[in-house]
Amino acid sequence: MIRVLVADDHAAIRTGLVMILGGADGVEVVGEAADGAAAVRMALALRPDVVLMDIRMPGVDGIEATRRIGDVAEVLVLTTFDLDEYVSGALRAGAAGFLLKSVEAPALVEAVRRVAAGDGVLAPGVTRRVMREFASVAPRPRPAGLDSLTDREVDVLRCLGEGLSNHQIGRKLHIGETTVKTHVSRVLTKLDLRSRVQAAILAQDAGLLGGRAGGGQVSGGPARP
């Protein structure tokens, strides 16, 4: 059973989300939060698998709430606004995905399942903008932690930067998914990262992809592979 916390400051929207998720097989809504501060408190207390997080909320916003939740739960941002600063801020804060509220109910449920399983999703239009942003920014100084990675772990990090899922990484590197999960966990630990999305950003920032942008889906999830 996937346990979900819904955080949105509009009661009607929360009710709709709860109805959609509560009616899905294998999904249980364990709580509702009307602002970011409440979302943080409830996430720490309830330990859900996924927090469905709005961005614009009174007091503590969704980006700061995502940062404070840390690796307690995986965060899937769901918002009306796809402004670049929101996308970048949410992903760098550790969100496993970013969707717009225009998403259809089946796609939302599937996104929650994917995030709970350790992958992540971005709305297609958002993905293209994020990749263009990565491609247009000059590589940043090589993070010191990269030197602690083995050659295989660097290969896995490159794959994360390309937006590949565990299954796709396994096929590309000719290793099993269990081995992939072990490598991903070690990469996140060595680089002190909370999510696969953050690892993908670091790979892009460090120029490990040679300026090549990833595909249409970005895999992600907190430090739990």
Describe the model:
This protein is α/β, with parallel strands linked by helices. The chain has ten helices and five strands. The chain has helices at 11-22, 36-46, 62-69, 84-92, 105-116, 124-136, 151-161, 166-173, 177-190, 196-205; strands at 2-7, 27-33, 50-53, 74-79, 97-100. It has a five-stranded parallel beta sheet with strand order 2-1-3-4-5, sandwiched between helices. Helix 1 links the parallel strand 1 (2-7) and strand 2. Helix 7 packs across helix 9 (177-190), helix 7 crosses helix 10 (196-205) and helix 8 packs across helix 9 (177-190). The longest helix has 14 residues, at 177-190. The chain is globular, with a radius of gyration of 17 Å. The two termini are 18 Å apart. The modification 4-aspartylphosphate is found at residue 54. GO terms for molecular function: DNA binding.
Range of strand content: 5-15%
Rg, please? 17 Å
Strand order of the largest sheet: 2-1-3-4-5
Mean pLDDT: 83
| Structure classification | alpha/beta
Oligomer: single chain
Modified residues (4-aspartylphosphate): 54
Domain HTH luxR-type: 142-207
Organism: Saccharothrix yanglingensis
Domain Response regulatory: 3-116
Structural features:
single chain, about 220 residues, alpha/beta, five-stranded parallel β-sheet, 10 helices, about 50% helix, globular, disordered C terminus, DNA binding, Sig_transdc_resp-reg_receiver, transcription
